[in-house]
Design goal:
Helices cover 35% and strands 19% of the residues. It is an alpha+beta fold.
Length: 450
Amino acid sequence: MHLEDLKRLVDLGEIDTVVVAITDMQGRLQGKRLDADFFLDETIRAGTEGCSYLLGVDVDMNTVPGYQITSWEKGYGDFVLTPDLSTLVPTHWIDKTVFCHADLSWIDGSSVVEGPRNILKAQLARAQEHGLLLQVGTELEFLLFQESFEDARSQSYHGLTPANQYNVDYSILGTSRVEPILGRIRRQMKAAGMVVESVKGECNYGQHEIAFRYSEALAKADEHALYKLGAKEIAAQEGMSLSFMAKFNEREGNSCHIHLSATDDEGRSLFAGDDGKRIHGASALFEHAIAGLSATMRDFALLYAPNINSYKRYVEGSFAPTAIAWGMDNRTCALRVVGHGQSLRVENRVPGGDVNSYLAIGAMVAGVLYGIDNELELDPPMQGNAYVADVERMPTSLGEAMELFARSTIARSAFSDAVVEHYTNMAQVELDAFGRAVTDWELQRSFERL
């Protein structure tokens, strides 16, 4: 939506609210609902302010220690949310409302470098210096339940009724059973400017994936965040609930496969070529890029798998990767090369549905640039089952990933010490909270028998 379109719709009374939001560390959209006239008269010019604790709380919005940019000692002051007018879109599932992503800065105008959107923008600026324009697609899976979010919470998320009660992977009947809500999500995301490709059932009960066309990397991260919010809001309106958590139960988890390709400013693929050694029809640059992604996978695992639950998704034989390997159209590998010619790209199968799209895409860009800058040689492709191969493995816990990220000279060079320390602290906060929790697993094992 162009600004002039917004002004016209406000004058007609068809729009009266503008949501302005940032994406926080946990990948959630946080911000304000603004009166549309106030947005046009004031916010476009001056932005709107928000408490800096939005980048210094846990998932429950508790203030926690350890962050350098915000704390009780610093007074929890404000930062500025400046609307990015190129991101204005109508959200037809909320009456008379449009949405706008915001850029985050301090009161003096300097960048909040720890902000997820700013992290991705910094990496994309580095890529542009290399002549790379990056295109990205994110493939999010979710679990759909018959209960409302309120009922699910009242039941402590136990005994929920999946919208499909058997494996509906690729099943037309399975998706037909829930087409009223899937169709509504598709149509209303399309009305918000997203290019919908398809929907398909997945393996877990009630699990589905709606696929959208790839786009420029920052636009895709913006779209990803809005889609997650919109899908949940639509589910709530339908009296249902859905979850993007990485591992809800012992069956298949929710993935977020990320596809990445690169073009020049004329739109020509920089991954296609004839000077690659391992991949027919690929460029040496593409092979360096994959090598860089492989070399940084463990160091950047925290940005691909940011939660304790994320690591429970990595189970052999589950279509979630455990081995850091690449292969040609091989779904057992962390990195899968797909497409040919102008569509040649790499799919990162490591992230789960709980991922922060800005951080994960930013990590991929940094990995690609590390491989290109150092002209890393690509290992031979994995043939067969990577789950049983003798190769490096993904970290198995948030604690391990946190330590790898904290010690990584590659991460500190690519993202800055400030970013590394900020997200290391985020992980430590989660680990401390989990360490204090008494789980259902412990009660089942210990209440009577120990």
